[in-house]
Amino acid sequence: MKQMQRQLLKLSFVGIMGGWLLCTLPGCASEKGPEFINDMEVSEISIPATFDVVSGGSITFGGKGFKVGDKILLILATDEQETCLANVTSVTTTSVTFALPDVVNTGKYKLVLVRGDKTLSLGVATLNIIANFDVPDVLGMNIKGVVYSNGTGIPGVVVSDGYEVTVTDNDGVYYLASEKKTGYVFISVPRGYEVTNTVNAPQFFERLGGINVVDRRDFSLLQVDNDSHILLAMPDMHLANRNNDLSQFGQFLEDVNTLITDYTAAGKKVYGLTLGDQTWDLYWYENLFNLVSYVPWMNQINCTVFNTMGNHDNDPYCANDWTAEQAYRDVLGPTWYSFNLGKVHYVVLDNMEYTNAGGASGKVGDRNYNNKIITDQIEWLKKDLATITDKNTPVVVAMHVPLYKMPDINNSVSVNLVNTQEFVDCLAGFTNVHVLSGHTHVNYSVVPSTSLMEHNIAAVCATWWWTGKSGYAGNHICKDGSVGGYAVWEINDANLEWYYKSIGYDKNYQFRTYDLNTILITADKYASSANATNAEKLAGYAGIYASPSGNNEVLINVWGYDKDWTVEVSEGAAPLTVTRVSQKDPLHIISYEAKRLNVNAEPTSSFVTGNTSHLFKMTASSPTTTLNIKVTDRFGHVYTETMTRPKNFDYGMK
pLDDT digit string (tens) for 184-214? Predict the structure, then answer.
């Protein structure tokens, strides 16, 4: 019925819509315009960002010069074909009130004044149609509320305080008996809905009062179709106001926002998910850049962003896991939670038990931690997953520290968490589980079973923003030679595909080739030849690249590789034998180690180039032949390069 009424309202004024020229008020919602903004003599408009209103209720906002008989046109911001006309019912010298037609749904709307044949754009506001009924107290329950959309309760929504889990009843009502330890209650946003955002942070949780207070916390949801959606998995930003990181982060913003625009234009819903280490605890105090400082930068990503906690997102002045996490909870919210996008169930975990034994004295301690999902989270996870009856539901789990260690070229599986198996046991019966992790600043995947796959994704910051720092290599490269970047997951119903997106490159850029005949990493070329100590160190870092191979070998670095990819190389019509190897990426050596030594600075041991097993080697017949390289991912997407040799080896090589 609402849809039919809305269509009739559209038809009633579609004739004048085409002739309207909207005069836009300077500024944004809640700001006041000039004394008179046009000949309608309407001024001092002040519109709140959000109106909570019952269906068919009244809305009042500030302004002078309105008249009874005026109308307010509501234009849905996400679909300007969705419009509705409301009547002004009363005015004062400083305000105006209009009656909201009961066909209006929750959403963000443009408000336009209509007076005869004149129109004036007033501003933008979210209209939240609230559920208008009481939720009586229940003995022993100290949290209660209703989960609703457009004033109607939604049954079956999972609600939790991080320990206890319940679901809403047929009216969308829930109750919890809670110790309120976390200080918040959250919902697992259900399929087909979104919560409203504060800028781009999803408001899926509400803060709570004391344990002896009965808190009513309602959640208003927006109905959407997100069975087809895009998830951007963004690990290790390490923003700290150092190494020109904020300037370099601007290049990431340009890259990711262009991608978001492209997907949005194609009709896709896009969501972001960080994978921890958004900040760098050491510089919370040294550079006064902390989680609060991170938020404005996160807000420049043009989509909803969910966050995951990393070890560097703990307060280094706290020597206790719970208290070290409090700053994160205060700024970003829950450290473990779940949500649903379309048919996929997402779980976010904090898998570091922060100890920081030396931090209690008021000085920065050792900032150490255990790779562990604490028992409280495991118990909550069991309850959360128990609400999913269809075990074929895709489950995507985000955590910062990898579940498994990087495998060797034999794809060996080695656990990385203290309680990896305990976590895996929680997922028994589920047939399609993916773990997204970060922390290592390298790319690798692990497939320990037919139902579980881990994707360890490199880093937005690459090598902690060093190689792109002013005066350094001018590129953006991770420890394994991957370009700094993030993962893109394309979800269509229960079908999941993914790829690694290198910052500043097309999505089809999935590997780099090296002509080993041209690679010579020496102190004479890349570090100070006058510094014997540095020369010796560089020789150690360079390893096998201390002299050109001279035997026409070619190396290929395929950063998104997993066991279901293929790498093929031909020389003319003749195929070459391709061998998977584990060694160091040469471009990273000269971009980080050599550049650090060149300014007489010791390379940080955890930042130096490490062996990676997504490298492939083959031998050509001569140093000048052209090679045809074909890389095919597990989904059948083909990436190619016609490699002209000799190929130069330099900082800007592709």
Answer: 999 999 999 999 999 999 999 999 999 999 9
- Has residue 11 got a pLDDT over 60? no
User: pLDDT of 481-503, one tens digit each?
Assistant: 999 999 999 999 999 999 999 99
41 DSSP assignment? -
| 9 closest CA partner among 117, 85, 111 | 85
Exposure pattern of 408-434 as b/e (b: 16+ CB <10 Å)? eeeeeeebbbebbeebbebbeebebbb
Residues 6+ apart with CB under 8 A from 151: 54, 55, 129, 130, 131, 132
Which residue is it, tokens 């989904």? 635
13, pLDDT greater than 80 = no
Given its phi and psi angles, is residue 178 left (phi above 0), alpha (psi -120 to 50 degrees) or beta?
beta
What number of H helices and E strands is found in the chain? 11, 41
Beta strands per DSSP E along 430-550:
433-437, 444-449, 452-456, 485-492, 495-502, 511-515
DSSP letter, residue 603: P
Per CATH, the homologous superfamily of domain 225-502 is Metallo-dependent phosphatases (3.60.21.10)
Q: Residues 582-610: what's their mean pLDDT?
A: 94
Q: How far apart are CA 34 and CA 44, in angstroms?
A: 7
pTM of the model: 0.91
Query: What residue ranges do the domains of the chain occupy?
Result: 2-129, 143-222, 225-502, 511-643
Q: For the residues 108-132, what does the mean pLDDT come to? A: 92
pLDDT of residue 476: 98
Domains 2-129 and 143-222 share a fold: yes
Widest Cα–Cα separation across the chain: 88
d(CA 298, CA 300): 5
Residue written as token pair 């409280």: 376
As a whole number of angstroms, the distance between CA 98 and CA 71 comes to: 8
Comparing 19-33, 113-127, 178-192, 259-273, the range with the smallest average pLDDT is: 19-33
Which of 458, 477, 470, 486 has its CA nearest to residue 653?
477
Tell me the per-residue pLDDT of 341-399, one tens digit each, with 9 for 90 and over.
Answer: 999 999 999 999 999 876 555 556 788 999 999 999 999 999 999 999 999 999 999 99
For residue 287, give the amino acid letter: N
Judged by phi (left if over 0) then psi (alpha if -120 to 50, else beta), residue 18 lies in alpha
- E strand or H helix at 326: helix 321-331
Assign a CATH topology to domain 2-129. Answer: Immunoglobulin-like (2.60.40)
Strand partners, 1: none
Q: Which residue reads 């040469």 in tokens?
A: 586
C-alpha span between 201 and 225 (Å, rounded): 19
